[in-house]
Amino acid sequence: MNLLDFANSIEGYLLVSSILFVLGVFAVLTRKNAIGILLGIELILNAAGINFVAFSKFHSAAMDGQMVALFIILIAAAEAAVALAIILRFYRLKQTIDADEASLLRN
Amino acid sequence: MLMSLKAFLPELTLVGFLSALFLLDGFVPKLRENRFPLVWVMVSCLGAALATKAASNLTGPFFNGMVLSNGLSTFFRYFFFFSCGATAYLTLSSKEIDSRGRSEFSILLLCLTFGLSLMALSNHFLMLYIGIETVSIISFVLAGFSRESLRSNEASFKYLVYGAVSSGLMIFGISLIYGYTGTLAYPQIAEALVKNNGAHPYVFYLALFLVYAGFAYKISSFPFHFWTPDVYEGAPTPVATFFSVGPKAAGFGALLHFILTALSQKDGNGQWTMIPGIQLAPILAVLSATTMVVGNLSAIAQTNVKRILAFSSIAHVGYVLMGFVVMTPAAFSSIIFYLIVYCAMNLGAFWVVGIVTDLQGNDDVSSFRGLGWNMPFLGVCMAIFLFSLTGIPLFSGFIGKFLLFGALIQVPGYLWLALLGVLNSVVSLYYYMKILKAMWLERPEGEVKALRLPLTQIVGLLGLAVPTIVLGLFFSPVLELAQKWVAQ
Amino acid sequence: MQFPILSLMTFIPLLGMLVILALPKDKPNLVRWTSVIFTGVPLLLGVWLYRHFDASNASVQFVERASWIKAFNIEYYMGIDGLSIPMVLLTVLLSFLCVFASWGIEKGVKGYYAMFLFLESGMMGVFCALDFFLFFLFWEVMLLPMYFLIGIWGGKDKVYAAIKFFLYTLAGSVLMLLAMLAMYYYSEPHTFDLLALAENHKQFLDKTVTLFGATYALDKILWLGLFIGFAIKVPIWPFHTWLPWAHVEAPTAVSVILAGVLLKMGTYGLLRMNYPIFPEATQWASTALMILGVINIIYGALCAMAQKDLKKLVAYSSVSHMGYVIMGMASFTTAGVNGAVMQMFNHGTSTAMMFLLVGVAYDRVHHRWIVKPDGSKGFGGIAAVAPVYTGMMAIALFASLGLPGLSGFISEALVFLGTFSNPKYQSYVVIGSIGILLGAAYLLWMFMRVFLGPLNEEHKDMTDMNWRERLTLLPLCVLVIVLGVYPMPVLNLMGPTIAKLLAALGVA
Amino acid sequence: MAQSCLWIVALPLTAFVIQALVGKKLPRHGDWVSVLAILGSFAFAAPIFLEMIRSGHVSEVLQYKWMTMPGVEAAANSPVLNKAVTLTVGILVNNLTAIMLFMVTLCASLIHIFSTGYMHGESRYHLFFAYISLFSAGMLGLVISDNLLTLFMCWEVMGLCSYLLIGFYYQKVSANHASLKAFMTTRVGDCLFFLGICGLYVVFGTSSLSEIYKALQAGTGTGVTIVGVPALAFIGFMLMMGTVGKSAQFPLQVWLPDAMEGPTPVSALIHAATMVAAGVFLLVRTYPILEKAEIVLPVIGTIGALTAFLAACIALVQVDIKKVLAYSTISQLGFMVLGMGVGSFAPGFMHVITHACFKACLFLASGSVIHAVHTQDMREMGGLRSKMPITFLTMFIATLAIAGVPGFSGFVSKDRILGDALAYGMTHPGWMWIPILGFITAGITAFYMFRLIFMTFFGHARDEHKHHHAHESPFTMTFPLMVLAGLSLAVVFAGPTGIHSIDAKLLPVHWFDHALDTVKAEMGVHGLHVEEALEHRAHGLALMVSLTVAGLGIFLSALTYLKKVISAEAFEKSLKPVHTLLWNKYYFDELYIKVIIQKLLLPFTVLLAKFDDKVVDRTGVDGWATLTLFLKSIVGKFDDLVVDRMMVDGSGNVVSAGGWVLRQLQTGKVQQYLVFTFIVLGFFIFYFVR
User: Fold this and answer.
1) Which residue range is the domain that position B420 belongs to?
2) Which helix (H) or strand (E) holds D632?
3) Cβ neighbours of B129 in A, within 8 Å
4) What are the tens digits of pLDDT across the range D114-130?
5) CA angle at residue C238 from C237 to C241, to 5 degrees?
6) Domain-embedded: residue B403
7) Is the CB of C241 less than 8 angstroms away from the CB of D651?
8) pLDDT value at position C241?
9) Which partner from B282, C53, C355, D405 sits 20 to 30 angstroms from B248, CA to CA?
10) Is residue B6 part of a domain?
């Protein structure tokens, strides 16, 4: 069971997507920069997309797995657009996009 | 196909009004100054409600399984349209949404309501995801609606980060479930689960939790409630009002739908039994208990009224979750009744807070000082809403809790949850009375000057206060309605 | 359904509240006289009720029954029997007198009287309701006006006292809610009707319920749930700390109602629900109840002796007197229980007098210190300046310390006779009689320091009681003396019902 | 006959009501209303008394239902737990009642007449008469009542009147303290008395005396025990404690001397003739019960003897004329209780009657002396013999009576009691010290009474100014003295000389003995039964000893105070410690007031009140402030303003402690929110999924 076969089987895809997922979560939690957080979020969504495609390919003949992946990409794009707009205004108001700055509202 | 469109009529009317408003606003600029867009929203909600009435007899899946309309969904449709109309009525006199943003606000509001009904109707994970995303993205924008204020912007930023992560987790969970069951439509998932009766791999439970993350974020239950106080405090008050009623109910609708169709079977006489191998009750009980306790305890030492109401809404989520622990029709009808009652009193409370923040400028408890004496009508209404939120008899809040605890007590073994719930409502009395104490028990500094309330607000507040009392005494008609919806 | 007297008596004050809210703000006297009318009418109805109450039969009379919520077969079920008629009469009388006693209120007169009438209808409802849901509704509704009455028109730190009172009572009644629900769902034909629950109380016997892992007998847990709710109201020893605060801070008329009627709801509740529906659990807990009663007596008396504030002293004396009621109830003997219910009535009249009199002094001198906190003399030698006031206070004092010839003695004597005839509790009576001694000590010591001795110069110009105050106190004086000499008019009302209650208790 | 008894009580009661309400406005402030009322009662009492003398036997019982409570028709064998309970009210007229009624109404009327003179010009004159009328009603009610419960009620009404009358001059702080002390000490006795009544209910199911007499004869009530003690003994002890409280016997005698703060007619009426006698009357009424419980009587005897002796010693050193009389009253009461204890039922009762007359006379005489010289201190009096002849003469007769000189009523009853005590001592050797103590006390009584006479009436005036002003009291005050002095003669009770053997020849008066024998039979009392010979020998011996002792007392007193041969001061100095002990009344006052009340009770109550406020209120219920403080200290950086204000606002409790912890989680940074969320999610997954 060499590396190539592994890469081609379902486990390979799942391994990649879970790695991506963990990286995304880690990025969201630790990045100071707001854009960094957005990147993390995109990673998580893509991980889900890979998952869908992999399962659709290996397990069921139906195409709805790919269809969902398509929708994920679409929604990720919309989300990114709105997120960037918000971060832009945040920058215009605070002249910085450091996530920890946003702590006016607390306890 | 035609049948599906007919069943989808309410949403379609909504989209029709939405696009009409969109065009009108584009071409007739002077519409902005007067209150036309908000009135338009109300008219569209009315239209959608009538459409729901027409479509309510069509039950069963539509759009080949993507959407399921039954008694529950008709209830949630009425609920969303009513709360959207009420919020529009509320913003008529609000200073935070001034003439400049009124039309954008209306369009976004209608679009949000459309997303909500999508969530409640969805019978398929994809439709669910789309619904949740539409609602989330529009709420990010609404949260940050007042451009200049830094707090509103911060609120939207936090909501954005938190919301995106949670829906990310959810979609990852959905992908895992898709992997395990091979399908995304709820009924097929149920069949797949029944097939390998009880021997579910660990990953499936992990996936269930991740999916719950999406719902929990929407209804702000314990692990995912951190964003609520900051967003409610930062967002403009009408927006916060709608957040506390609309999306929360949609979250419950979707969760209810998911559990009932995907995770359990409905046997002959309308009883739901969980698919073997899935034991949700203990987990939900712990979640409900922790949500209640967190909501109530953190509200104790608050001095900002909007944060108090935010935590109180979290606490109420805890009470509703109690209904989920017990899978009986009585429990679900009490959940529905509780949501109706919660909507009325919460809208009222937020509305009064909105009026006071407009008048006094800041939303600290001290700005409520001596208000009962200056504006007795406002004081009385607020007293009614707060007493009802605490669950004092004679008010509808008590009946809601009464039904919930009644359903819970019938199941042996969860008496401790009922006891915790009951003690929590005592604790909640303290912070509700903190507001009332400021309004009535402290005399205003200057001499008592009676401020006049505009007529619209009086009518609106009465529209919410009167049912809170009437439902407290004669609640059987509404209860029968709720039971009918659940039975369908 | 003949003339619905009970509903009338309950809802006329509510109607009065609405009428008052509609009255113009700037005419206080008009508001005062309307509230006099709206408390006077229930008083007249009360008298009519007393005359037509058939004292010989033990069952419920003047029953009014209408179905209210079919889904839970909750009924609007009102009726009174031997237990509730004395309390109803006491409520109606005290509310009528208190309207006169609060003539001195200037701030927010309309709000005050509206809340007061709301309170009266709440109290009436509690004593007449026979459906647990209706009882619970009135029980909690009564808290709202009390919160505002204490919170707005109260004394120095009224806010703390008001929220403390509300939190306490709500915590108790919330436990009652759970017990109510459990009783509803565990009873065969799901019902809230107290009398039906009492008939087949066997159904609660051999069931168990699990709480935090351990399993307990159902009827004991339910009994405990109800007991805690009522014990807070009585107040029984560990739950009594709200009473001194609420009394000291409440305006005179409100503390009269608080002491005169609200305290009795706890014991009334115990007799109406705990005794008939859970007889076995009541017997299981009877010694505990007796011990708590004795603690109440001694603890209240000792604390009263150390008080420097007149009103706090009277508050602690109420704790002590309610101890007798609990003792009488726990003895399960005819004389004991009759004495307990009689003490509920007598304590109502004598404490009401004492609070009104303290109010009279407070209106004139604006302080209530027997000995000022800094040790200097508070009141002193008032007898020289206000003889009639001293005479009235003497009558009130001697009535409440149980001097024969006045009403206090009758109920204390019955409680002691009853408890003594139960061989188990004879030593408790000996300790209880120490309570009588302490009672006489702190009351007369207060009387001496406040009224006798050389006159304290600050109160030289203290005027004696005016006609209005004398008229409010006259009926109570007459009641205290007449019932002291010949208690049968009130005592024969409760006899048959208590006999039925004891039979149901199955006491040997 | 019973109807007239009702009138006897009703008249003074109505007088009280009239006086209390409209007394001030009536002419002469309505004193005539009270006097007429009491005279009316006397008029009703006299025929009953005469009927008793004529027919030697009068007996009637009247009963009304007072309170009825329906009970459960429980099984026959069930204890008295919840059977029907009926409390009755009733009148019992027998020879005892007749005699007591006559004596009480007579003394009361005389004292009413006396006080019209004595109290003339007082500020609250009408209230005084109101209180006295209420008192008389109470006393008469007690005398005629058949049911112990109504007896208890009148008992306490009298306690109330003594409280009001002692504190009549309420401006004086000492008067207030005295009245409070009186009420509280009698209240102690009353509480125990009431427990006795409860005991009666448990044993006999009723507290009506006539039924109890029948039940005792039928032998019920032997097996039952109360609180582990045999029932009748328990009841006996409790009744005894009632008497001890009311008649100021040994442990509870502190209040009577201080009761002298009240006006003198009050002392005469309440603290000589009637109220204190009521205590002994209770023993007389319930004697059959005491006899049935054997161990109670000796205890009563000891208490009586001890009180008599101790009170007599204190009287030796007193200088205030009323204090001397007060202690002599306690001593004489001790004698009566001693009599009851040793079984001499009839003489004991006779001593109650005779003592009432001569002690009332003594008090009224001292009242007229005080009225004349405006001081109560005997050291400032002297030589008043010439100034106030009538007062001197009547007081002298009464003193002879109390000293036990033959020919006077005191000697008759005291000699018989001592005789019976001696007989009792002979048959029960263990209790021989009771009669010995009795004889010594008789001697001391003679000594201090004559000391009083010599210091006030003989010798030269010590204070010229007062002596000059002294004048004889008006007729309204001297007339009662003369009547009472007349009653103090032996001829009234047992014949001219009072000595049995001599009287049999001259003019035997037997009405009292016949009355007592019939009532003893009626009640089932058999008193001290000793063989004929032994009793005769004992009485002879007792006669000899009491004569010598009385003579010795008078002789010594004459030597020290009349002839100044023995100097009292030297005597005092030599026995300095004894004198101070007696002067401070065996430190009883200090023990009760200073130690028990001020050192133990009050500090404890203050402590308890603090405990109640701080501990039960704060920690037990709404005050976990301590926990929050603890959390604050360990966490360090902390939003003090918010938390302090929360605690200061007083309702910081476990909830707020929890609230504070949770609020620390809301740090405002969204990423930290997510961290908390993931932690909790991880915990959930780990815990549930496993």
Assistant:
1) 285-488
2) helix D625-635
3) 68, 71-72, 75
4) 888 888 878 888 889 99
5) 90
6) yes
7) no
8) 82
9) B282
10) no
Q: How far apart, in whole angstroms, are the C-alpha atoms of residue C353 and residue C393?
A: 8
Terminal Cα-to-Cα distance of chain D (whole angstroms): 97
Contact D178, D258 (CB under 8 A): yes
Token pair for residue D552?
């010795």
pLDDT in the model for residue C466: 85
Rounded-to-integer distance, Cα D454 and Cα D436, Å: 28
**What is d(CA D475, CA C9) in angstroms, rounded to the nearest whole number?**
66
Cβ contact, residue pair A29, D678, below 8 Å: yes
In chain C, where are the structural domains located? 1-284, 287-508
- Token pair 């739908």: residue: B257
The CA distance from B7 to B1, in Å, is: 10
Minimal-distance CA residue of chain A relative to D673: A29
Q: How is residue D56 annotated by DSSP?
A: S
Give the number of other CB atoms < 10 A from CB of residue B10: 28
Sign of dihedral through CA atoms B42, B47, B51, B56?
Answer: positive
Please report which helix (H) or strand (E) contains residue C217, including its range: strand C214-217
What is chain C's mean pLDDT, rounded?
88
Q: B301 is written with which tokens?
A: 């030492």
* Total beta-carbon pairs less than 8 A apart between chain A and chain B: 110
Instruction: Judge: A75–B169 Cβ closer than 8 Å, yes or no.
Output: no
Indicate yes or no: CB of B223 within 8 angstroms of CB of D659: no
- Phi then psi dihedrals of residue B122, to 5 deg: -60, 135
Which chain C residues contact residue D79 at CB under 8 A? Answer: 421, 423, 508
Please list the ranges in chain B whose pLDDT falls under 50. Answer: none
Examine the pLDDT at D163 and tell me if it is beyond 50.
Answer: yes
| pLDDT tens profile C34-88 | 999 999 999 999 999 999 888 888 888 888 888 888 888 888 999 998 899 999 9
Q: 10 Å Cβ neighbour count for B192? A: 16
Measured in Å, how far apart are chain A's first and last C-alpha atoms? 55
Token pair in block for residue C329: 């109830």
> CA separation (Å) from D384 to C187, C468, D379, D398?
92, 57, 12, 17
Residue B223 has phi, psi (to 5 degrees) of -65, -20
Cβ separation of A102 and B158 shorter than 8 Å? yes
Predicted confidence (pLDDT) per residue in D458-479, tens digit? 877 777 777 777 777 888 888 8
Say which CATH topology domain A3-103 has.
Helix Hairpins (1.10.287)
CB C334 within 8 A of CB C250: no
Instruction: Please list, in sequence order, all residues whose beta carbon lies within 8 angstroms of the beta carbon of residue B116, skipping any fewer than 6 positions away.
Output: B76, B80, B131, B135, B246, B247, B249, B250
Structural domain contains residue B465: yes
Report how far residue D682's alpha carbon sits from residue D688's, in angstroms, rounded to the nearest whole number: 10
**H or E element that contains C175:** helix C158-186
In chain B, which among 45-104 make CB contacts under 8 A with chain D? none
Residue D391's pLDDT band, with cuts at 50, 70 and 90, is confident
Which candidate in D656, D670, D672 is best for mutational testing of the A interface (most A CBs within 10 A)?
D670
Q: Which chain D positions have a beta carbon within 8 Å of C429's beta carbon?
A: 195, 198
Which of 384-413 (B) contact C at CB < 8 A?
387, 390, 392-394, 398, 402, 405-406, 409-410, 412-413
DSSP string, B77-111: HHHHHHHHHHHHHHHHT-SSS-GGGHHHHHHHHHH
| pLDDT of D650 higher than 60 | no
Mean pLDDT for D319-334 is: 90
D668 vs A102: CB contact, 8 Å cut-off?
A: yes
The CA distances from residue D517 to C71, D58, D422, in Å, are 81, 13, 21
Check CB contact under 8 Å for C453 and D83: no
User: Which of B108, B134, B166, B172 to mutate against chain A (most A CBs within 10 Å)?
Assistant: B172
- Inter-chain CB proximity A93 and B153 less than 8 Å: yes
Domain boundary assignment for chain A: 3-103
| C-alpha span between A2 and C107 (Å, rounded) | 91
